[in-house]
Amino acid sequence: MGTPCHFALFDLQPSFRLDLEQLAARYRELARSVHPDRFADASEREQRLALEHSASLNEAYRTLKNAPQRARYLLALRGHELPLEVTVKDPEFLLQQMHWREELEDLQDSADLAGVATFKRRLKIAQDELNESFAACWDETARREEAERLVRRMQFLDKLSYEVRQLEERLDD
């Protein structure tokens, strides 16, 4: 195994539930210790290693701080690589996606900033519920399919919340 587990870099056990503030603090502490500036006078090899370590640390932090990415990573650690883009075999959720998309378009057309704020709160609640559901089942082999379905839903909501933030910025200008 070439690169260490992302969780191991932060001295954490693989888990979906993480204290994100603690993760950020640990990241800053580790990032300072491997910052390339600290190795300015070091040998070329030491500089390269520091740079590689810094890159690994950045990638691990980006993965672990984002719930859907952390979920995918946990499944991959258990030997279940999820294809990035998958047609959701989840008719109930597909319908929900269509409703959300239509609602977002309406909010955009009407430039309803208050409506966007309400939509964003509902989205956050849906994300929190998915996160809780995933946390409860990701490590159970018998519930692998459910965990994968939840990750796909999480990825969609993550993308949708990014689009909502963009809309908010446009309407704020």
Q: What does this entry look like structurally?
A:
The protein is mainly alpha-helical and 173 residues long. It folds into two domains: 6-65, Helix Hairpins, CATH 1.10.287; 91-172, Up-down Bundle (Monooxygenase), CATH 1.20.1280.20. It is built from seven helices and no strands. It has helices at residues 6-9, 20-34, 44-65, 67-77, 91-110, 113-137, 144-172. α3 crosses α4 (67-77). The protein is globular.
Kindly summarize this structure in a few lines.
One of its GO terms (cellular component) is iron-sulfur cluster transfer complex. By secondary structure, this protein is mainly alpha-helical. The protein has helices at 6-9, 20-34, 44-65, 67-77, 91-110, 113-137, 144-172.
Count, helices = 7
Work out the radius of gyration. 19 Å
Count of distinct structural domains = 2
Q: Name the CATH superfamily classification of the largest domain.
A: HscB, C-terminal domain
The shape is globular
CATH class of the largest domain: Mainly Alpha
Helix content: over 70%
For the largest beta-sheet, the strand count, sense and barrel status come to: none
The fraction of residues in strands falls at under 5%
The low-confidence runs, each spanning 5 or more residues with pLDDT under 50, are none
- Overall average pLDDT: 90
- The secondary-structure class comes to mainly alpha
In N-to-C order, the SSE pattern is HHHHHHH
CATH architecture of the largest domain: Up-down Bundle
